[in-house]
Write a structure and sequence with these properties.
Rna Polymerase Sigma Factor, Chain: A; 6 helices; Arc Repressor Mutant, subunit A; 2 domains; single chain; 167 residues
C-alpha cells in the first residue's frame, strides 16, 4: 500500500504542472485549473488499487479529462440557467413596465372620454367598456343604431387623435 502512495506522490510531483496546463488550456482559468488538478490527484488516491506504474500517466490524463468534462458541463448548465433567469427577469420587468404604461393610457383615455359631449361619452363607455353592441346601446339610450355608430366612431376618432399626440 505504501508503494502505491509513493507512486502517486511521485506522479504528483512529475505531472502536476503538465496536468494544470492541460486543464487550463480547456477551461482558461488558472486558479480553477489548479483546484481541478488537486481534484485529479485526490481522485487518483481513490483508485489506488487500480494504479500501475507503467499506466499512471494515462490514468491521470483520463481522470483529468473526465473532471474537465464534468466542470465544463456544470459551467455551461449554470451559464444557461443564468441566461434563463436573466431573460425571465427581463420579461417580468418588461411586463411590469407594460402594465404601468397600459394603466396610464387607460387613465388618459378615461379623462378624454369625460371631455366628449354627454351622449357621445355615454355611447363610447357602453361600447368600449361594457362591450355592448350598437343595437343594445340604441335600445338603452333611445337612439337609432346609425346615430350610436356615428357617436362611437367620432368619439373613438377624437380619443385616438389626442392619445396619439400624448404618445
Amino acid at each position: 500500500m505504501k508503494s502505491t502512495n509513493e507512486l502517486i506522490a511521485r506522479a504528483y510531483e512529475t505531472y502536476r504542472d503538465r496536468v494544470t496546463g492541460y486543464i487550463n488550456c480547456r477551461i482558461n482559468n488558472e486558479e480553477t485549473s489548479r483546484d481541478l488538478t488537486q481534484e485529479v490527484f485526490m481522485r487518483l488516491l481513490e483508485y489506488s488499487q487500480l494504479i500501475y506504474e507503467n499506466a499512471i500517466e494515462n490514468f491521470i490524463y483520463t481522470i483529468a479529462r473526465n473532471i474537465v468534462n464534468d466542470y465544463l458541463r456544470r459551467f455551461y448548465v449554470r451559464r444557461e440557467y443564468d441566461r434563463y433567469i436573466q431573460d425571465y427577469a427581463t420579461v417580468e420587468d418588461d411586463s411590469l413596465e407594460h402594465n404601468v404604461i397600459a394603466r396610464d393610457l387607460e387613465r388618459i383615455e378615461l379623462e378624454l372620454v369625460e371631455t366628449l359631449p354627454r351622449q357621445r361619452a355615454a355611447v363610447y363607455r357602453l361600447k368600449r367598456y361594457e362591450e355592448l353592441s350598437a343595437k343594445e346601446i340604441a335600445e338603452k339610450l333611445g337612439m337609432s343604431v346609425r346615430t350610436v355608430e356615428n357617436h362611437f366612431y367620432i368619439g373613438l376618432k377624437q380619443v385616438r387623435q389626442v392619445m396619439a399626440e400624448c404618445i
